């Protein structure tokens, strides 16, 4: 998967989460690829779990709880980088480990 | 004005010491010393005075949790104003709703909320309906710049709200003169209510917390909760007033929390159940005990964990003191379970905090004997002054002292919490649930929490929410939404529940869902879940 493609899917996931938390149909505030989503409050701490779940489902990746952090998930660019590296791991067959220890626990 | 004096004193006393930091793990850390914090706070306070701010003015901060927010809050307090902080980027209507309830004199925004606010007002086309909005300096805003982080605070003012009220503006709420804070609760009706807390009680609550958590200027507290939540606000004030260091982290990921404890030498954390539920599910790193060695205490506030989770929490944080607290926005904090009671009284929320009394009253207003359930009624420190601009709502919640408690309390008001609970023979309080969340099924009264805690005992369940919906046959039918922890087999869960609960408490329907809707404070949004199932009753294809 190309980075652009990952980015588009990720942006859509984020937009979806923000919209699903809003009780109105209006479009959410705009954000850039380097805007802080969780620290900046666009996605609250509770909804960050939803963000992770959507990434797991949309990209078919496994995420270890130790990989859940602002470092990997706070901006669109960081999420994309992280997902890219995860997909590379899968393709190279280096994604080993016990499945049960992955998120969701 | 004691609160203002106390704040001025800590600024003076701790000048060169770290006051507050904003940490974004692993590397980004911005810190303000008490001296730097004071400089910014005084500058903003003076700026607001120049804009015409007067004591008793309501000032709302609409911004993400940041150092700028801390500066804003303290500046308003220093000017004798009433602060209110809220944050909701997801729902553009929410800020507008709050403005139309509280009519703040000033709005403090950051760059992104300013953008958001302009947009929401434009979309809502509010110029005509609420003329007052448009007077917020036509959204030009006056930027108040801070040199350290480079982020500006935008000050929007509404000169009209102070005067005669104008068209639709209510006359100024006289309670604002005594108040220091306006906390918004969502309220069961969905209409937010602004709870006014007095300056005196805010200070008394902070002092009690300093005493209970034994805070000193050597403490570094981790701030995870919003300041729009009384527990988060209380932590901010008790930390600052003890000369401690407040570290802001806007992430509830266990790894970020543990990294922050280690790298910032955190000594205390005020938390809500969902934070701890995630943390105890996080595999311990090999050097865990060494990494968290500075941590002295944590709190479980704003809800409860199931018993097995509490046991696990104690095992996880073996050498850390655990406090449980209970309260409502309208009462601030009512009770506390102290660490030495944790093992013995784990499922209770402890005893009334200093300066308060808690009563369990029956429907006739009589005090119930031990172990008999009734409504939890609060008296003393933390009692709200009232809801802003809502006398009717205030009178429903704040009532005159009833005859049965006159022996204990003489003057003031009682807060009827709407929570059901009981007290044991030793005075420990047990919270059963909300009066309006109580499920009446087959003639029994059942609280969602009783069923939820049992479901949570199951090893393959991560989270659960139980609601009752109208049912012709049973009165109410019980539905459970369950988030699986790994693979969850529904029939086995039902067998598990049958072994532990009476028949009338077994949910008629169990749905495995991906997540349970929660508020930003980590509370389950029961109304949202309930609505979903109630709506379903009217769909044609549902039998």
Low-pLDDT stretches of chain A are 96-100
Low-confidence stretches of chain B: 127-140, 162-169
Beta-strand content bin of chain B: 25-35%
Rounded Rg of chain B: 24 Å
By helix and strand content of chain A, what is the structural category?
mainly alpha
Element pattern of chain A in H and E: HHHH
The major sheet of chain A is characterized as: none
Which structural class is indicated by helix and strand composition of chain B?
A: alpha/beta
Count helical runs of chain A.
4
In percent terms, what proportion of residues of chain A is strand?
A: under 5%
Number of helices, where a helix is a run of at least 4 consecutive DSSP H or I residues of chain B? 16
How does this structure look, described?
The complex is a heterodimer of chains A (105) and B (543). Chain A is mainly alpha-helical. Chain A has four helices and no strands. In chain A, helix 1 (3-21) packs across helix 2 (48-59). The longest helix of chain A is centred in the first third of the chain and has 19 residues, at 3-21. Chain A is globular, with a radius of gyration of 14 Å. Chain A starts with a helix and ends in a 14-residue tail after the last helix. With 543 residues, chain B is α/β, with parallel strands linked by helices. Chain B has 16 helices and 27 strands. In chain B, the strands form six sheets. A nine-stranded mixed beta sheet of chain B has the order 2-1-11-10-12-13-14-15-16, with helices on both faces. In chain B, helix 7 links the parallel strand 10 (220-223) and strand 11 (245-248). In chain B, helix 6 (199-212) crosses helix 7 (230-241). Chain B is globular, with a radius of gyration of 24 Å. Mean pLDDT of chain B is 87; it is low at 127-140 and 162-169. At the A-B interface, helix 2 and helix 3 of A face helix 5 and helix 8 of B.
């Amino acid at each position: 998967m190309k980075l652009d493609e990952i980015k588009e899917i990720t942006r859509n996931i984020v937009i979806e989460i923000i919209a699903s938390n809003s009780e109105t149909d209006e479009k959410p505030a705009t954000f850039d690829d380097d805007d802080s989503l969780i620290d900046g409050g666009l996605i609250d701490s509770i909804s960050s779990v939803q963000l992770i779940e959507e990434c797991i489902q949309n990209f078919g990746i496994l995420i270890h709880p130790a990989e859940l952090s602002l470092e990997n998930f706070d901006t669109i660019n960081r999420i994309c980088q992280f997902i890219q590296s995860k997909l590379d791991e899968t393709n190279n067959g280096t994604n080993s480990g016990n499945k049960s220890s992955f998120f969701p626990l | 004005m004691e609160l203002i004096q106390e704040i001025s004193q800590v600024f003076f006393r701790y000048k060169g010491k770290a006051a507050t930091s904003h940490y974004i793990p692993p590397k980004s850390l911005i810190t303000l010393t008490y001296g730097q914090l004071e400089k910014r706070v005084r500058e903003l306070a003076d700026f607001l005075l120049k804009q015409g701010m007067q004591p008793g003015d309501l000032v709302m901060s609409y911004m993400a949790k940041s150092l700028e927010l801390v500066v804003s809050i303290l500046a308003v307090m220093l000017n004798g104003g009433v602060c209110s902080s809220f944050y909701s980027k997801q729902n553009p209507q929410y800020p507008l709703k709050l403005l139309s309830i509280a009519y703040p004199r000033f709005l403090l925004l950051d760059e992104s909320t300013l953008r958001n606010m302009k947009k929401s007002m434009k979309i809502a086309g509010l110029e005509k309906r609420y003329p007052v909005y448009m007077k917020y300096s036509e959204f030009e805003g006056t930027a108040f710049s801070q040199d350290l982080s480079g982020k500006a605070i935008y000050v929007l003012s509404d000169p009209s709200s102070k005067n005669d009220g104008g068209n639709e503006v209510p006359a100024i709420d006289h309670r604002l003169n005594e108040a220091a804070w306006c906390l918004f609760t969502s309220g069961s009706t969905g209409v937010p209510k602004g709870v006014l807390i007095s300056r005196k009680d805010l200070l008394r609550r902070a002092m009690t917390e300093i005493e209970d958590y034994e805070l000193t200027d050597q403490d570094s507290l981790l701030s995870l909760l919003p300041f729009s939540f009384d527990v988060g606000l209380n932590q901010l004030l008790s930390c600052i007033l003890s000369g401690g260091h407040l570290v802001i982290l806007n992430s509830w990921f266990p790894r970020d929390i543990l990294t922050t404890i280690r790298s910032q030498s955190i000594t205390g954390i005020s938390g809500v159940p969902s934070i701890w539920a995630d943390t105890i599910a996080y595999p311990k790193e090999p050097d865990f005990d060494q990494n968290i060695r500075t941590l002295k205490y944590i709190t479980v506030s704003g809800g409860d964990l199931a018993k097995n989770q509490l046991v696990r929490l104690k095992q996880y944080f073996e050498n850390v003191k655990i406090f449980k607290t209970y309260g409502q926005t309208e009462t601030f904090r009512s009770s506390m379970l102290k660490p030495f009671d944790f093992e013995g009284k784990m499922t209770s929320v402890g005893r009334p905090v200093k300066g308060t009394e808690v009563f369990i009253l029956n429907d006739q207003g009589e005090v119930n004997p031990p172990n008999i359930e009734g409504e939890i009624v609060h008296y003393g420190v933390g009692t709200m002054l009232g809801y802003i601009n809502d006398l009717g709502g205030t009178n429903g919640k704040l009532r005159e002292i009833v005859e049965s408690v006159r022996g204990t309390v003489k003057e003031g008001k009682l807060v009827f919490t709407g929570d059901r609970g009981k007290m044991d023979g030793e005075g420990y309080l047990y919270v059963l649930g909300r009066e309006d969340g109580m499920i009446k099924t087959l003639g029994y009264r059942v609280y969602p929490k009783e069923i939820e805690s049992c479901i949570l005992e199951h090893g393959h369940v991560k989270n659960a929410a139980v609601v009752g919906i109208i049912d012709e046959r049973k009165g109410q039918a019980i539905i459970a939404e369950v988030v699986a922890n790994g693979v969850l087999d529904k029939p086995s869960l039902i067998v598990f529940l049958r072994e532990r609960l009476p028949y009338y408490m077994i949910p008629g329907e169990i749905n495995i869902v991906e997540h349970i809707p929660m508020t930003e404070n980590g509370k389950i949004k029961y109304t949202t879940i309930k609505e979903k199932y109630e709506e379903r009753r009217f769909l044609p294809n549902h039998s």
